[in-house]
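Data availability excerpt. The first of two example chains:
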Amino acid sequence: MTAATGVSAAAEKSTTAHVVWASALGTAIEWYDFLIYGTAAALVFNKLFFPSFDPFVGTLAAFSTYAVGFVARPIGGAIIGHYGDRLGRKTMLVATMIAMGLGTFLIGCLPTYSQIGVWAPILLIVLRFQGIGLGGEWSGAVVMVIEHAGNRRGFYGSLVQIGFPVGVAASTGIFGLMTKLPEADFLSWGWRVPFLISILLVGVGFIVRLKLAETPHFKEVVERKEVLAQPVLEVLRRDWRSFLLAIGITVSEVGLAYLLTVFTVVYATTKLGLSRQVILDAVVYAALVEFATLPLAGWLSDIFGRKALYLAGGVFSVALAFPLFWFLDTKEPALITLALVVTMTLTHALLFGPKAAFMPELFRTQVRYSGASLGANVAAALSGGFSPLIATALLAWAGSYWAVSVYIIALSIITIVATLMAPETAREALRS
């Protein structure tokens, strides 16, 4: 009999609810910390930290520092995943929150280029390595949940995913409020507010996570004395196929996440000449809709399987790659909002909702934290952080959105192929 079966149904349900709540809250806070940088890179960092460049080149430079956080994520995924599989899920979830929160707060304190010259962008890049924290945050949160969730892993895991739209809505919303300030005030102190208040949010999440219980699956590994000395190396040596599949099924979803929430802001404000408020509002509304669509996608994946949802999301991503920009180019706020809502729902939500269960299910308990961390974060480094940078460069090269649409299609095809090659995990017990 396993540790999980020895718990009463009521106690198990209560424990699962607490784990889901704590994981979702912490993930929302950490996504907020990570995403406000993307919005700031699109709106203000090119002016304050790279002012000697042409505005477009300054935006590319700002997105380059944005990408640094994604380069840091696989490093964080390897380190935190290693200790998550050796010391436990809870311990590392608390550590990641501290790393993210402190880095975000310090960015809000940074002097600008006009104050300290070249040291400003250098320090910005150094602090952007807070991505190390997020490298182990998401994977730890979803592993914690699905190892408590029984047969409803898709649904419960998708509740953790709500942290992403919460982070998008909160980070974009607060920047929307700050942009209402006079331009001089916004550039002087308004942009710092979203970064500085993160320290309060992290304090709340830290307290909540301290009360979490370790997962029954990890406890069993400890009791059987099967904790591995080098779980990351074990992933690369024995679970390399699952690792490659994890990367493949993720590249489209993570690329879409940042193209839809970051690059669209640049495209709308620089290429189309729209006000910041129009596109920021549209991103917020699209993120709010995912409050419903992410759990729905997770629930459906428990019924129809992870692969069915992933294939649908991949096909819709291909189908909507061009129509998204057709609607953006109308410059009509209502149509822009509709385009982002529909695209986020039919592409990102269908991929991201089931991901919380699908990704960890590919790996056995001894390496689950490491495998999920490495798979998710290598994919994020390849397509997530560099997507706004690549899309901006493609837009400059082609002079039109068509090259960005082709890029979206290419990422989607990779995910479709990887999904077809992956096993169906929805109806199988977690690998021990």
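And the second chain:
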Amino acid sequence: MTRDPKAAADKFDDEHYPAYTMGRAAEMLGTTPGFLRSLDEVKLLVPQRSPGGHRRYSRYQLRLAARVRALVDEGTGLEAACRIIILEDQLEEARRMNTELNRRVQASGFTVTSASESS
């Protein structure tokens, strides 16, 4: 069986590829597997499962878990920390979409004025 080296290399760059076992993820975060399970229970992280049913985490999920861990360590409750992370991610996505929309509008040659500028 031959493997495509390019496809394998792409996985290294894919932040959503589920490369880390629960034990390795907990070790990297300096936390316990129970903490990661709690993030799964509140549905902040829904890790992929290996064929044997073991949780697998991506780099993106580990970044989220690290952010929650920092908030919890500062005294924020777990559910509140998860809500903060979700809102931060939604804000970042809205900003990204706004930037992309502005880029497209500028490329098309249209000018956009705000309501306060047109009054």
